[in-house]
Amino acid sequence: MEVRTKVLEQSAKLVEEQVDAQLAKLNEMDEDDLERLKERRLEALKKAQKQKQEWLSKGHGEYRDISSEKDFFSEVKDSKNVVCHFYRNSTFSGNLREPPTATQRSGTKFTKVEKKTIRGRGYDSDSEDD
Known about the structure:
Blueprint: H1 2-27, H2 31-57, E1 63-66, H3 69-76, E2 82-87, E3 109-114
Parallel strand pairs: 1-3, 2-3
């Protein structure tokens, strides 16, 4: 138990020293340093906003129904993160309206495709017809 206490004390001391060093660095900043810091933060915010607008223009943040296999590939090829719900109208999960995170995660594109849309291409997990 004593070893754990010493390790925790050493860890806390190390973190405290790092915080003190950061505070000292901030206290030594002059107006020019603060202005550069503000400019870097503003550029980061502009970049994040530009990325968000790009995602929204690609349909991120909404839940799209895809009607054909061709549309599926054109919808998902330009997006790094895609969640696709393959469904059947005859099942309960086919009635899923919108995942709760679809509008909250603009970095991910959410789509849904009715299973019969891509039938006959080896994607099918069962043999029954819709």
